[in-house]
Amino acid sequence: MPNKAIAVVTGGAGFIGSHAVDVLVSRGYAVRVIDNLSGGREANLRSQATNPDVTAEWRDIRDIAPDDAAFRDASIVLHFAGIGDIVPSIERPSEYMSVNVQGTVQVLEAARQAKIKRFVYAASSSCYGLANVPTREDHPINTKYPYALSKYLGELSALHWFGVYGLSVNVIRIFNAYGTRSRTSGAYGAVFGVFLKQKIAGKPFTVVGDGTQSRDFLYVTDVAEAFVAAAEAQISGQVWNLGAGNPQTVNRLVELLGGAVINIPKRPGEPDCTWADIGKISRDLGWKPKVSFEQGVANVLADIDYWRDAPLWDVSSIASATKTWFAYMDPDRTKEVSERD
């Protein structure tokens, strides 16, 4: 029996990364996971716990050496590792640059030295800022906060390694991924984790504004499938937007989850709608979303106990956690600073 192709997945114990591991195993790959467990969980890999073809190393991507053994003889790299959330990035910009930019460079160098056949970088749609919708890949870039900047600089680094060194790179800008195994700890952030813990606790959903804002939610298994398709494609140097192409309102999410609502102030700088134009990725990779929003939410509800230990957010704690957002993201403040200078 021939040796299996080897894939390296950074952040492979995390939300999307662990699902990508499942897809790769189903395609016959041996998988090497690198994760420092700052956001991921060993339990996210429980479906592969007894699989000898899946190995894991719990370490920081910034510690990856150019000749790192984890990359030896591998054919593809899916790079998900990094740190997210908007408010902490405003408070700790240096850390975000260190992990999301320099960490990415460490992974790129190891991939280059190992002569990886394909490197796929998990980028963020946050690079567009307040974008026109549906948003195409050629939309102007406008990084509004350090997280967005760090992810975009990581993307530019990946494409630089393609242009200068010939490393075969593709980039996927993720819009609003959701699903099972999403992060349960850390800063106030993604609406699904906040709402699921509130539902478990029997508390009202804290809906920002009037809830008519919409997000291009894409179920995590569809995200993982797209990344593997990008790794196996016979093209490189591409940038693709990834969403469902079918935005859903927060009010629709509340309707599907079921529960009472309390409204909290809308935050400055947040888009009313995110909406990926997925024409390019569909044409290039033959990819299309398979899981409907209704089915995806049902899948999450069936696994709701996963979020039992997540932090419980309420009006007061959210107001405290988002003070930095209001202080730095208010466009009127930016105008005042500009006029004063």
UniProtKB/TrEMBL annotation:
Residues 8-243 form the NAD-dependent epimerase/dehydratase domain. Signal peptide: none annotated. Pfam families: Epimerase. InterPro entries: Epimerase_deHydtase, NAD(P)-bd_dom_sf. It comes from the Bacteria. Belongs to the NAD(P)-dependent epimerase/dehydratase family. Pathway: Bacterial outer membrane biogenesis; LPS O-antigen biosynthesis. This is NAD-dependent epimerase/dehydratase family protein.
